[in-house]
Amino acid sequence: MTIQKFVVTADQMRQIETRIFAAGMPVAALMEKVAGLIARRIQELLKGEGSSATDCITDVTDRRKRGEWKKIDNSQLPVIGVLVGPGHNGGDALVVARELHFQGFQVVIYCPFSKLKELTKNHADYARCLNIPFVDKIEPLKNCDLLVDGLFGFGLEREINNATATAIDEINNLNIPIFSIDIPSGIHTDTGDFLGMAIRAKHTFCLGLWKMAFLQDRALEYIGSSELIDFDIPAADIAAILGETPAVQRITKASATQHLPLPRSPISHKYTNGHLLIIAGSRRYSGAAILSALGARASGVGMLSIAVPESIKPMLSSQLPEALVIGCPETQSGAISELPVAIDLGLYDAIAAGPGLTLEAAIAVESLLESDRPLVLDADGLNILAQLGTVPILSERSALTIITPHPGEFKRLFPELADETGDDRIAATQAAAQLCGATILLKGARVCISWKDEGDSLGDSCASRTITYLNPESTPALARGGSGDVLTGLLGGLLATAIARKSPAESVAATAVWWHAQAGIMAAKERTELGVDAFTLTQYLIPALREFA
Ligand SMILES: NC(=O)C1=CN([C@@H]2O[C@H](COP(=O)(O)OP(=O)(O)OC[C@H]3O[C@@H](n4cnc5c(N)ncnc54)[C@H](O)[C@@H]3O)[C@@H](O)[C@H]2O)[C@H](O)CC1
Ligand SMILES: [K+]
């Protein structure tokens, strides 16, 4: 079992926890175990061991001008401020405070609350007995080297206001690195929403199972880097609440590689490895067609055909000698006016369309939507779809459609939904999949993919559940023109291959997203976040594959 694939809401976490407690695990014992693990990790991070959180330790070092943490002897151990809230998040924090105190750190506890949950109060009483100083003002924290945030965890449901909000704001303004326990206080565990005020953490220890907020774009600036503190939740308890096949999963290396078309059959030939038709580009945006085609090339698809306006055909042929380039009739400005009369869409296992088409290619896109071919639709393909009427058109399609909008395109495609779900990207993607029956791949820092699980309708209701995959790792280096075009081609290639191999088709969306992100991460590592232009990205797809496949 890979614990990394699970992702839960606060309510699901509570239900799992309830089962563990009902089975006999004492609450206090679990708190002790979890907080002990956190205290150990904090010490490792302070020594510079592992994780990107070590960057912030360098900040600490700079602040105190004491040289490197690794060289610090006991007398120079950092001063750690522990922020304690009224619930069990505060209880965890108090156990961390106590453990760090016993390890020789100078600890100061900030607890502005008078009413604490019983277990939290017990730990507070004991910490007082140990003469760990308690403060209820921010001022005494200003000389700390590190703050540990245990104000609120998944129990926070309402807006933070008044004195607590002011205090959190002041704490953020101290500019001291903060490690949050479970979730930065003030961030909603499920939606990632900012509840009035929130701790801006450098690093967050997510406890037990990943929470939804870690996969919501809007929470990422508050979460900082993150890691899972695995406290051995029994698999049976997870399965009892999430089901044997959880409806929402983080994409992992294992799940992504499972749907790669590898190994190839020794007797495969070009047609059994899929035939993809890309329809992209215009005289104005010829590069978009090239980038999509280079993405498709990396997928290893058996046959690649590319339909472009007649006038840019030579450019495509010179860049992609292996591809079959089809010239299409074009408008005055050089967009595809319609598909060639002689084209037989039935020849292709899948079609990927959209990048660089311009809105003038509406007739061509309409004929693709009317076809019975599996389709990946992106960019202008989506803008045209929005004009034609997203939901009725997609609901009518008999074949699989994967649409890959960024948030702006999503709003154009599903204006009402976007208003309802706001910035909750996971809810928005799931609702869109329910509404139109297509596979929705919502781009962003944490790509969210949802589709309807037709095989699993919910009892009497005709609504089926959705399957959702969330990509946990990416890089802002990919936030750049053209990187989406590469994804469209890569995904199209994987889809054509999956259809030809008769393997599950929707799942390749998660594989393509993971692969694309890993290539970006690898390129950014070697060339910095500024060095990952879309063409360069295409050149990292195969090296990245060699690392993770
Ligand atoms: N299963 C696990 O993962 C474990 C979780 N642990 C820790 O417990 C917290 C959850 O604890 P809980 O007591 O349920 O809630 P919180 O500590 O998050 O805080 C709730 C507390 O705060 C009050 N409150 C809520 N909203 C506000 C507000 N806006 N302003 C002021 N006060 C508010 C509320 O009334 C409660 O009293 C989890 O995150 C983990 O850190 C276990 O220790 C280990 C296992
Ligand atoms: K917290």
Short description:
With 549 residues, this protein is α/β, with parallel strands linked by helices. The chain contains 20 helices and 19 strands.
Give structural notes.
Its cofactor is Mg(2+); K(+). It catalyses: (6S)-NADPHX + ADP = AMP + phosphate + NADPH + H(+); (6R)-NADHX = (6S)-NADHX; (6R)-NADPHX = (6S)-NADPHX; (6S)-NADHX + ADP = AMP + phosphate + NADH + H(+). There is one protein chain. The protein has 549 residues and is α/β, with parallel strands linked by helices. The chain is 41% helix and 16% strand. It is built from 20 helices and 19 strands. Helix 15 packs across helix 16. The chain starts with 6 loop residues before the first strand and ends with a helix. About 2% of the residues have low confidence.
Please report which band the strand proportion falls in: under 5%, 5-15%, 15-25%, 25-35%, 35-45% or over 45%.
15-25%
Shape: elongated
Number of strands: 19
- Contiguous low-pLDDT stretches (5 residues minimum) are 65-73
Overall pLDDT metric: 94
